[in-house]
């Protein structure tokens, strides 16, 4: 049986794919009853689509795989705390659990800036596990943005 860390390593591999494409390095994996049914990474630059976050792409893949918009009995693994858009999609998809690596103090919607995933006013609440491989997940982001800021424009 795989552990949270094992699935997060797969999400990190997806984040590295994003990095290779000069995208913000975020990766996501969705597991259904112990089987990976979706893997994705950020593709906003490639697709020229502001909604092409790793979580959004993975949710679409998982819904297609399950042939349902209700992603019950799934776990979403993502290398960084979901943003408000992704958190909204997670709630709408009825994903019961999100496991993430690094916190996002500027845009996190799972406890940092706000907590959409557990907002009692919404019709679905998500169990959150945070800090899985936090150092590795945070480093890839810090390195990317440090390199980006170092460029001459």
From TrEMBL:
The keyword Metal-binding applies. Its cofactor is Zn(2+). InterPro entries: APOBEC/CMP_deaminase_Zn-bd (IPR016192), CMP_dCMP_dom (IPR002125), Cytidine_deaminase-like (IPR016193), MafB19-deam (IPR058535), tRNA_aden_deaminase (IPR028883). It comes from the Bacteria. PROSITE patterns: CYT_DCMP_DEAMINASES_1, CYT_DCMP_DEAMINASES_2. It catalyses: adenosine(34) in tRNA + H2O + H(+) = inosine(34) in tRNA + NH4(+). GO terms for molecular function: tRNA-specific adenosine-34 deaminase activity; zinc ion binding. It is an enzyme of class 3 (hydrolase). GO terms for biological process: tRNA wobble adenosine to inosine editing. Keywords: Hydrolase, Metal-binding, tRNA processing, Zinc. Zn(2+) binds at residues 53, 83, 86. Its EC number is 3.5.4.33. The active site is at residue 55. Residues 2-113 form the CMP/dCMP-type deaminase domain. Homodimer. PANTHER family: CYTOSINE DEAMINASE FAMILY MEMBER, TRNA-SPECIFIC ADENOSINE DEAMINASE. HAMAP family: tRNA_aden_deaminase. Catalyzes the deamination of adenosine to inosine at the wobble position 34 of tRNA(Arg2). Belongs to the cytidine and deoxycytidylate deaminase family. ADAT2 subfamily. This is tRNA-specific adenosine deaminase. The gene is tadA.
């Amino acid at each position: 049986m795989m552990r949270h860390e094992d699935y997060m390593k797969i999400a990190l591999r997806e984040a590295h794919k994003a990095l290779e494409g000069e995208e913000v390095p975020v990766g996501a994996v969705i597991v259904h009853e112990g089987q990976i049914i979706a893997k994705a990474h950020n593709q906003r630059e490639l697709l020229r689509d502001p909604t092409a976050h790793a979580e959004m792409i993975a949710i679409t893949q998982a819904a297609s795989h399950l042939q349902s918009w209700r992603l019950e009995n799934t776990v979403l693994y993502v290398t960084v705390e979901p943003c408000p858009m992704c958190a909204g999609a997670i709630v709408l998809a009825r994903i019961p659990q999100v496991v993430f690596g690094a916190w996002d103090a500027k845009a996190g919607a799972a406890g940092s800036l706000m907590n959409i995933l557990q907002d009692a006013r919404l019709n679905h609440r998500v169990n959150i596990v945070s800090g899985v491989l936090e150092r590795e997940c945070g480093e890839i982001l810090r390195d990317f943005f440090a390199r980006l800021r170092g460029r001459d424009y």
